[in-house]
Design goal:
Blueprint lengths: L2 E2 L1 H9 L1 H9 L2 E3 L4 H17 L4 H10 L14 H18 L2 E2 L3 H4 E9 L4 E13 L2 E10 L15 H10 L3 E8 L5 E8 L2 H19 L22 H5 L2 H7 E3 L7
Bound molecules: iron/sulfur cluster.
The site of iron/sulfur cluster has 11 residues, from α2 and α9.
Length: 261
């Protein structure tokens, strides 16, 4: 494989068998979870905001287009509730005015390549945005969630693997996670962190080790520790591990073209 992405690495880190199911065997999680669709539509609305499009209207229109789709809503969620939450978050974001993007056509969804290791391996990533938050130039990641990050220990964010990866790719040490929280009173967190240069080196080494294992086809189950800290019950690939056809059909579909890891 020529390119590696953060999603691949994160899948392999979670469970090498999960990585195999997805990237080698071509299984895909069904894309009918309402929260995932919401996240995609909402991110487009944030981008629209910077492109001088009325974001609340844009979001409402796009979200209406999935109203009759057979989406699976999580506990307590509904199409109407998520519409209101999305609109409220976008209004708050506009009022806050804490994020600046100098050139939205250039600085949103920025495609970057970074070579790593030997053998001409290439890491490919899309950075949500490059800009400034609270006047600090930084790499920006948008996230929609139902949970707040614990602000009591803000430095934990420096260990977030996705932020470390984005910082490593861009060679920009300041990162900011903008967390749009869907809860009774929607809230936005602007969470700053500074990634150390030594973390870039460690990430580079980790990447080399992981990719060597992937290329050696070392695909073993890594379920985590015993329940409740075990990821298997929430894993979309559980049906494959248990050889349960009904679970496989409920959660997965298989792409025609299989990818080789
Ligand atoms: S069910 Fe558990 S062991 Fe199987 S792929 Fe998922 S995380 Fe890995």
């Amino acid at each position: 494989m020529d390119h590696y992405s953060y999603t691949q690495i994160s899948n392999y880190l979670q469970c090498p068998l999960k990585y195999k199911y997805r990237y080698v065997d071509g299984w895909r999680e069904r894309e009918d979870k309402a929260n995932l669709v919401f996240g995609r539509v909402f991110q487009k609305a944030i981008e629209a905001h910077f492109l001088a499009v009325e974001a609340v209207e844009f979001f409402s229109f796009q979200w209406s287009s999935v109203k009759s789709a057979p989406l699976e809503y999580g506990n307590g969620d509904s199409w109407e509730k998520m519409l209101e939450q999305g609109q409220d978050l976008l209004r708050r974001f506009r009022a806050d005015q804490r994020v600046r993007i100098e050139d939205p056509r250039r600085d949103l969804q920025v495609k970057l390549h970074r070579p790593f290791g030997a053998n001409g391996r290439d890491f490919l990533g899309y950075i949500d945005a490059l800009g400034s938050v609270d006047e600090i130039p930084c790499v920006i990641e948008w996230k929609t969630s139902t949970l707040s990050y614990p602000e009591a220990s803000p430095r934990v964010l420096e260990l977030d693997p996705q932020l470390v990866c984005y910082s490593w790719m861009t060679r920009i040490q300041n990162v900011c996670l903008v967390n749009f929280i869907r809860k009774k009173q929607p809230e936005i967190q602007y969470l700053h962190a500074r990634i150390r240069k030594r973390q870039w080196k460690a990430f580079d080494r980790t990447l080399g080790t992981l990719v060597s294992d992937m290329e050696a086809r070392s695909f073993y189950p890594r379920s985590g520790i015993r329940y409740p800290n075990n990821q298997c019950p929430n894993c979309p690939y559980l049906g494959l591990c248990l050889h349960q056809k009904r679970l496989v059909e409920a959660n997965l579909s298989r792409t025609e073209e299989q990818r080789v890891g």
